[in-house]
């Protein structure tokens, strides 16, 4: 069974993750989720289609799961990305606002069970199949979503609670489907 990851997240990395999330949500809100200009009329906006957010939100979940994998290629890659986010985020917050960037890692992190890890691999295969059929815009949403999920997955705030819920769902689903108890 995996042990809890020793990675930590700083306010700088959480700021990067929340900024990516805010960027995608603001663009979706402004354009209505459709094309570049939104629906015809004054200023775009109306008719927001929540289905447009599915690739981005699914990839956020993937990033959150990868950072809680705590080992292997996925966990190592996610922790490396998180470390880069910590460094870049801390530097940008200090340079822009002059503030300190404390650690905001939640205590008592949830980790993936063996069944949850199997479910994660299956999830990656499904997302890879969908990725293969997507275009450049789709690839950008998935890449930024995974980055966002990695930055937010270990935080003590609401996003960390969401990550714990995603991990719990994957553990329960994976354990039931694979027969691991």
Give a quick precis of the structure.
The chain contains six helices and no strands. It is mainly alpha-helical. The longest helix is centred in the middle third of the chain and has 26 residues, at 72-97.
Word description of this protein:
The chain has 181 residues and is mainly alpha-helical. The protein has helices spanning 11-31, 54-68, 72-97, 114-133, 136-152, 158-178. The protein starts with 10 loop residues before the first helix and ends with a helix.
Question: Which structural category fits the helices and strands?
Answer: mainly alpha
Residue stretches low in confidence (pLDDT < 50, at least 5 long) are 37-42
Estimated share of beta-strand residues: under 5%
> Compute the gyration radius: what is it?
17 Å
Quote the distance from N terminus to C terminus: 12 Å
- What is the residue-averaged pLDDT? 85
Total helices: the number is 6
- Major pleated sheet: none
Q: What's the arrangement of secondary structure elements?
A:
Elements (H helix, E strand, L loop, with lengths): L10 H21 L22 H15 L3 H26 L16 H20 L2 H17 L5 H21 L3
Summary tags:
single chain, 181 residues, mainly alpha, 6 helices, 66% helix
């Amino acid at each position: 069974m995996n042990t809890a990851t020793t990675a930590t997240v700083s306010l700088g990395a959480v700021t990067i993750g929340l900024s990516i999330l805010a960027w995608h949500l603001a663009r979706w809100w402004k354009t209505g989720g459709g094309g570049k200009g939104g629906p015809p009329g004054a200023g775009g906006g109306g008719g927001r289609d929540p289905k447009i957010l599915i690739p981005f939100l699914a990839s956020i979940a993937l990033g959150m799961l990868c950072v809680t994998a705590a080992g292997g290629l996925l966990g190592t890659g996610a922790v490396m990305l998180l470390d880069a986010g910590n460094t870049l985020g801390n530097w940008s917050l200090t340079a822009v606002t002059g503030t300190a960037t404390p650690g905001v890692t939640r205590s008592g992190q949830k980790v993936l069970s063996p069944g949850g890890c199997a479910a994660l691999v299956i999830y990656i295969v499904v997302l890879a199949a969908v990725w293969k059929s997507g275009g450049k815009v789709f690839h950008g949403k998935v890449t930024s979503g995974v980055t966002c999920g990695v930055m937010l997955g270990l935080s003590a705030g609401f996003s960390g609670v969401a990550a714990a819920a995603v991990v719990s769902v994957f553990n329960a689903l994976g354990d039931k489907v694979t027969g691991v108890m």
